[in-house]
What we know:
By secondary structure, this protein is α/β, with parallel strands linked by helices. The chain contains 16 helices and 17 strands. The strands form 3 sheets. It has an 8-stranded mixed β-sheet, sandwiched between helices. The chain has a 7-stranded mixed β-sheet with strand order 10-11-9-12-15-17-16, with helices on both faces. A two-stranded antiparallel ribbon has the order 13-14. Strand 5 (99-104), helix 4 (108-117) and strand 6 form a beta-alpha-beta unit. Helix 6 packs antiparallel against helix 7 (154-166) and helix 12 packs across helix 13.
Amino acid sequence: MEPRIQYAKTADGVSIAFSTLGQGMPLVYMPLSTASNIQFEWQIPEIRRWTERLAKERTVVRYDGRGSGLSEREVTDLSLDAHVLDLEAVVDRLGLDRFALLGGFVLGPVAIAYAARHAERVSQLILWCSWARASDMYRSAQAQSFAALREKDWELYTETVAHSLLGWSAGGPARRLAARMRESVTQETMQAAMRAVTEFDVMDSLPKVQAATLVLHRREFAFAELSLARGLASGMPNSRLAVLGGASLAPYLGDTEAVLAAIDEFLGEGEEPARVAEAPEAGAFRTVLFTDVEGSTSLTRRLGDAKGRAVLREHERIVREALKTHGGTEVKTMGDGFMACFSSATGALECAIAMQRAFAEHNAALLRQAQDAHTEPVEVRIRIGLNAGEPIAEDEDLFGTAVILAARVAAKAEGGEILVSDVVRQLVAGKGFLFSDRGDVVLRGFEDPVRLYDVRWREGE
């Protein structure tokens, strides 16, 4: 099934075409060059198989940069900052609070710039056959020859570049890449884009990239020396370098399994439970958060054990990602729910809102896919409840009235709701949160009614 093309509008008014494929942890896969066409590329068997494999356990987001493909072609600003606006527009349009980012080759510096400017949103960064300072690469004799050919003979330029980048023995794939370039961008725009690209320099941004970073490079790739990849890895504080065999720029050619294995292993490291090293100190004031999947038993009965478990794994991934982002500690999981704690009531509430928005986006994506496939969507709706107090910490678990009350509050919520006790509401007073008074509610095990509040987390409420 061909991915559905959608559009995002940049801050400077440029329409950017994008598509999504799969479900799970979002991976934004940037174009590697200034000539991309996500619709044309889907028709190329090697690229389609590569993209489908990337999307096997995650949501892959792809887009065409300004001036190329299905995005707006008539543009004049092709600077690094303008390309960052393209990426910002797509992730904002999808509402991605946290995602992995894969960029490379001539637009690798754009990925680096974005990761440095938006450290809170990039969970992991993957750079493919790229560099930080374009002048280190474009002063080569080969690059100068390409620039001269680009001005004189557009068709010969695309054929020569395609074979040079993919390997002179690539044959069909190289011819398809050349055709894709001519289909994706005009000669004039390519000339302007490459003049801008040669000025990209993000050396000063390297130390500011806080995300875990994997620098991937093919040893025999002639267009960019291995020393450029080493420079990238050494310049970022939380990075590693993996050198793979092969000479092709295209990750979908050659030993693709080695590339995929490196990416899968690296991205899998971001899915570990969000637990801090030390348990909360005894008597410490904590905000306790409970989640619960609505109708999990009937869901498993309807889907079967294997598919039902796959749905719950997605619930676990989204919750753990939110906990990690907002400083929460996973205390334990109960199969279809979590218990977590926070030192900050504000952080706990922000985390709860991020969870519900992530599930809303996840369900919307499933609905779109189901409509395209004419099948029934499988939504994941969670209840969230919060309370604050001084729980008893023992054997990496929490006990006491504050914990029991939080669990009871969560049980009163409906799928898609966040309910909090009055204690939590008072702790975050003046912080910009919106509440609806649910009145006094009798909770099992508590003699006195408890005042509950519904957190209004949807846009426009």
